[in-house]
Amino acid sequence: MEYEVINMSMSSNPNFVSVVRLTTSGIASKMGFTLDDIEDLKVSISEACTNAIKHSEEKDFEIMFYIYEDRLSIEVRDKGIGYDMECVEDPDLKDPKTSGLGLFIIRTLMDEVDVCTCGKKGTIIKMTKMVGVEE
Fold first, then answer.
1. Distance between CA atoms of 70 and 52, rounded to whole angstroms?
2. Angstrom distance (rounded) from CA 42 to CA 121
3. In angstroms, how far is CA 82 from the centroid of its own chain?
4. In this structure, what are the phi and psi dihedrals at residue 117, rounded to the nearest 5 degrees?
5. Global pTM value
6. Rounded to an integer, what distance in angstroms lies between the CA atom of residue 118 and that of residue 131?
7. Are 107 and 48 in contact (CB under 8 A)?
8. How many CB atoms lie within 10 A of CB 48?
């Protein structure tokens, strides 16, 4: 299956997450996503970038957009210490905390989510949203 790739290397400055959100919105709009889906993508990419900024030990992180005819897959790669995914519990929605909701939100809004944590080499959050899929 053919696809195009857009690769961004971003500073770990939280002020630049808006640039990633705008890029995501532009790509998704050109692909024909609905406004609701674009909002879901923007929230998800913001959460993934916030995780990368928070946990990366480097001054930058990468975002890769894989543009297919029927879907958009986005990878956010950091160079942090990683974590054990088996130990990440679903948040208590009756008593939410200000942190720890990111992956839960991403999983709720996206069609597919895969998290690969590679020991001390970082974490990759790969999320996919299908174009034109009704819930």
1. 27
2. 26
3. 16
4. -110, 130
5. 0.84
6. 30
7. no
8. 31
Q: Which two tokens stand for residue 70?
A: 């029927």
Do the beta carbons of residue 107 and residue 66 sit within 8 Å? no
pLDDT in single tens digits along all 135 residues of the chain: 799 999 999 999 999 999 999 999 999 999 999 999 999 999 999 999 999 998 877 889 999 999 999 999 999 999 876 554 444 455 455 555 555 678 899 999 999 999 998 777 789 999 999 998 765
Contact 120, 54 (CB under 8 A): no
Residue 31 one-letter amino acid:
M
Of residues 22, 14, 23, the one with CA closest to residue 49:
14
Distance CA 22, CA 25 (A): 5
Check if the beta carbon of residue 48 is closer than 8 Å to that of residue 64: no
